[in-house]
What we know:
Blueprint: H1 7-20, E1 30-36, H2 54-62, E2 64-70, H3 76-85, H4 89-92, H5 101-104, H6 111-117, E3 121-125, E4 156-158, E5 169-173, E6 186-190, H7 198-210, E7 218-224, E8 231-234, H8 235-238, H9 272-302, E9 309-315, H10 334-337, E10 341-344, E11 353-360, H11 364-372, H12 386-390, E12 400-406, E13 410-416, E14 420-425, E15 432-436, H13 454-464
Parallel strand pairs: 1-7, 1-9, 2-11, 3-4, 3-7, 6-8
Antiparallel strand pairs: 2-10, 5-6, 9-10, 12-13, 13-14, 14-15
Amino acid sequence: xxxxxxxxxxxxxxxxxxxxxxxxxxxxxxxxxxxxxxxxxxxxxxxxxxxxxxxxxxxxxxxxxxxxxxxxxxxxxxxxxxxxxxxxxxxxxxxxxxxxxxxxxxxxxxxxxxxxxxxxxxxxxxxxxxxxxxxxxxxxxxxxxxxxxxxxxxxxxxxxxxxxxxxxxxxxxxxxxxxxxxxxxxxxxxxxxxxxxxxxxxxxxxxxxxxxxxxxxxxxxxxxxxxxxxxxxxxxxxxxxxxxxxxxxxxxxxxxxxxxxxxxxxxxxxxxxxxxxxxxxxxxxxxxxxxxxxxxxxxxxxxxxxxxxxxxxxxxxxxxxxxxxxxxxxxxxxxxxxxxxxxxxxxxxxxxxxxxxxxxxxxxxxxxxxxxxxxxxxxxxxxxxxxxxxxxxxxxxxxxxxxxxxxxxxxxxxxxxxxxxxxxxxxxxxxxxxxxxxxxxxxxxxxxxxxxxxxxxxxxxxxxxxxxxxxxx
Length: 473
């Protein structure tokens, strides 16, 4: 069938690229860099008892699981440009999904670009930078454009789309769903099998790359579009989550919280049955993504690369599944700013353990440069996480900074320390938030007006204005 495409032809197409890029430098470790779109910490390895993610869980058990890793901007394009450049959003000046990195920083050096310049073969499969998503409701839509991608970063890149069969099935438009006015606001119990979906095709392309023998190290970046909305997966994944087995979280109270903290004016959307269907669809999409991850990891072992390949697995930001009455990203609450991060460094002493240290996604660039023996550009915002890969309990005192812009150019800025989350909206003019994670991990009680905490608030406010903390000890 046409969808089971062209593995041999695909490899033949790549052969000249590999042959022209051979280098004589000492062998460095490979990197498999995996990004799942809108993947929050509702996975088994992070304590979720409902969603089924056996392959992610096994990967987390092999490496170091970062339990408190934070993105710099909880929206796809700003987040990805931040961690791929190692720069904060105020440096990239990217606050939305329609700005390319080269339009604001034409001379920036990205992580894959630096590795490419250092002798790595670099490949982008599906969405790594913010390439457009194919909409199966538009028959003339293309598989995706490269408008927001970065050609300097890659030796090879490919985008994917589902087959005609994979775009059919039981479709439900969630009119009251998490993104009103968004064309992707629906779920689809799709026909066909995993390879009829764009993520299934992405894995086939990635496996074809792994099967090519080469004398140079590779940086293979694989982007999974699920569990991003629209929530599309083969029907068998929806069947794992009967609606009557699911429960919605308590949305809590919005009393005393600035209005700009929320992405919708009132808690939740529509009727509870619709919200349960959203939850079911997110879980189904997550488990479908996990199955593709499993295929990729099996291929890494089968092709003999596992022993000399660093694996990084992240979600590009978090996602609300009803917490605070939200069904979206783009907030400065924990569920949106925090995302999964697992790093498997072959032979690292910390493998098989978790760390509760506060880390940021801008740390990924300096970490991989360090592990691959590559010099970093000047001015990166993060630091190498190597000490935590060797000892997840190592002393570490760095906070994490996340920001998001609201209409009218009103910026929200948040700092997360071991104990506190402190947030200012429009430099405090539109409100502030303070949450004590020692007593309130769900961030339900805003302590910003507690007079007994004035000294703590003043200290956090100063920290928020200087997002360049000293290196770790």
